[in-house]
Amino acid sequence: LLQLVESGGETVQTGGSLTLSCAASGSFGSNNCIGWFHQAPGKEREGVASLYLGGSGTNYADSRKGRFTISQDNAKKTIYLQMNDLQLEDTGVYYCAAGREWSSTVGCGRYDTWGQGTQVTVSS
What we know:
The chain is mainly β. The protein is 0% helix and 58% strand. The strands form 2 sheets. Strands 2, 4, 5, 6, 9, 10 and 11 form a 7-stranded mixed beta sheet that branches. Strands 1-3-8-7 form a 4-stranded antiparallel beta sheet, with no helix packed on it. It is globular, with a radius of gyration of 13 Å.
């Protein structure tokens, strides 16, 4: 059974940086990609970045391109989200999820396993 645990969320000032981790335990099975999502207070969850586990493919939301970087450490079965130049609107809960369908144009999809989330607060 695949389980995902996010960590690394904390309070940072605007313009600061933070790296979130998504640690996987168990087998990925049919899951071939991981996505990071952001849910701001009172808003719907949105995808920010995703990664293909079997290679070097990545995909980013337009609003995060150039500021966020997704990467993986295969040996540690951990996927990272490096976030730079954080802004107030980046505040919220960040989730990672495992998906079953990768597309080089739209990224990861068919998510079926989610972590519990980690809180990021950006303060001025």
